[in-house]
Amino acid sequence: MFIFTGCARSGTPYIAELLERSNFDIGNEVFVGSSGISSWMLTSKSSIEPHNGPIPSSMWTGTERRIHLVRDPIACINSIQTLTCWEYIDKELGFDKDQHLLLKSMLFWARWNKMAEYEKMIKIEDFDYDAYVELCEYINIAPNKEAFDEIPTFDSNEPNPHSCYDAETMRRWYPQAFDEICITAYKLGIEVK
């Protein structure tokens, strides 16, 4: 059983759709396929029920193989602000519900990615066809070039429709949270731009 996880807005639906179209029975978010699930909520091992339904903790044996999806922190943080499940995240990470959304999004990215346990990591912006083939070999399935070509990927050169804040603004407004992002990103081998 494989679990693809990471921070919200890091590509769990994309990976689920791509692998499903590659004949890998994988669920997304709260639906579990026979081969696994792709869900950002499974980064946490707490008993707090996710915002859109319970994931039965009894099904996890501890032998699952975890793959961590990571996205560029600045792009991801701007996208995270559109989430509608802040009550769940606030409970998971102990945030004050009245904290500024940018600050919570920054801390969420840093702490959720820091919490992730994994044996393999995929940087979603670097997920090209060669990386897809490598992943298919890793999970023992045949790649589907047609599916890969048809499903839109993350392109760091495309403008982010959620680009409200750049790295300098985040650093200026919340320097401690920005430092936390940089430390987590460094440990993951990601450059903060």
Q: Into how many domains do the coordinates divide?
A: 1
Main pleated-sheet profile: 5 strands, parallel
Mean pLDDT: 88
- SSE-based structural type: alpha/beta
Give the overall shape, derived from the CA principal axes. globular
N-to-C order of helices and strands: EHEEEHHHEHHHH
> What value does the Rg take, in angstroms?
16 Å
Describe this structure in words.
The protein has a five-stranded parallel β-sheet, covered by helices on one side. The protein has one domain (2-188). It is an alpha/beta fold. The protein has eight helices and five strands. The N and C termini lie far apart (35 Å). Helix 4 packs parallel to helix 8 (175-188) and helix 7 packs across helix 8 (175-188).
Structure described in brief:
By secondary structure, this protein is of the alpha/beta class.
Distinctive features:
single chain
SSE order and pairing:
Layout: E1 2-6, H1 12-20, E2 26-28, E3 36-38, E4 65-70, H2 73-80, H3 86-93, H4 101-115, E5 120-123, H5 129-139, H6 145-150, H7 167-173, H8 175-188
Parallel strand pairs: 1-3, 1-4, 2-3, 4-5
